[in-house]
Amino acid sequence: MEFIWILFAFVCGLAVKLVNLPPLIGFLLAGFLLNYLGIQPSSILDSLANVGITLMLFSIGLKLHVKDLLKREVWASTLSHMGVWTILFGGLGLLFAMLSMPFFDLLNLQTAALIGFALSFSSTVCVMKLLEESGELKTRHGQLALGILVMQDIVAVVFLVAATGHIPSLWALGLFGLILVRPLINKLVDQAGHGEMLPLTGLFLALGGYELFYLVGVKGDLGALIFGILLASHAKASEMNKSLMNFKDLFLIGFFLSIGFTALPTLSMIGISLIITLVILAKFALFFALLTKLKLRGRTSFLSALILSNYSEFGLIVVALSVSNGWLNKEWLVILALAVSFSFVITSIIYRQSHRLYRKNKDAIRQFESPDCLPVDVFSQPKDAQILIVGLGRVGRGAFESLKNLVGSGVAGMDADRIRIQRMQEANENVFYGDGEDADLWERLDTSDIQLIMLALPIAEDSTNIAIQLRKANYQGQIAAIARYQDERDELLAAGIDNVFNFYTEAGTGFAEESLGLIRPKKDSSAT
Description:
This protein is 65% helix and 5% strand. By secondary structure, the chain is mainly α.
């Protein structure tokens, strides 16, 4: 039976990938097909889905800093959006009830508001998957979306306590003492090394955090998130996240399949779910309006609102709980399962075009910006730079250090990871914060003295987009980039990038040339 799940997931995932759509759409389709064919899920599938979500929340924690949650644009936008959305959708539900629309005609004010509350959450799974695939987790809009999702998780915990009446145990107060054992957890990760023990340690901490919180009556997923946050500042946090990535992605396939097993819909259910799916346009507009009112830039507000404009798997939990309590009819669980699935598909397709959409509509979007943007969003101009390195990960940082030794202060670095930039600035490095795919940045940045821009980014599509923006901003210098595969190298060169370094194949050449220098002096001395 397990092979049938894998077979359908593989075939459907590959099919949608061949038409340039995210594989998760195929996994959702596979779940509905399996359900239609009468194949019943087992507890194994639920276990896989639960482990996948737990690992995903642990990974979120590894990239999150608590102070980000305390920012006004995070908590204010989250609470305002959930409150306003619940009222708006509740009113819309009553309007549909007055029009005698199917399923809505049985709703009252309380149940309509409850469905609105369920739909106010955005999907952590969908958003995280898209941000990871696009390499935007540490960008300004990525961190903002991440903070909003975590705040929504906190609201979810409060709701579950209120709805179920299960008050956490008094032992839950002891969870605040986790901060005291943080040095012990850090030491444990230090001792794990870099091999197979590192991902095993991550699994142990993620699942252990889940079980610990669950035992004291608190949502287990929150425990995985908290344990990840405790390790966020550890030197191995990024390495641990990468070691867990494949496990997490594999287990999450179980989650997407499980959505399709919720129930089989009728035509009227599909019609109602499509109407609800269309309402995410209002969800986008509300997010965008709130974020711009909180003085965020138009681009940040646009991208954040776009990726958060979907419905959450948590909405299914809210409705399932409401059905079990007799508040809603069971048909609503099927309707919302479809709406969640449709919203995943729409977000996955549209967000891949998000930067292109912004470039085409940036003038209209900027009109909604506040004249006084937040200080954190003010652009910096690199000092006396002839060479600019975009992306300061392992490859970019290595290039930055090498060029600094060769040309001195004439090299500058830029990265979308604000924490990384702060640490390098504290070390008096010539670096500044910036998102390479930000069209506003290149328009406002003076690049007249920059002779070379090096794009040390892991995703070839990002480098291509930046190269296009640079040329549109009248940059006249040279552009270099890195690639992992030959087909990526060909695409980058076709996009107008002057030089592309394949660090898988050409790293061996550099290694050989530098190592040869170890024996050349000996040969020269023996010859004399």
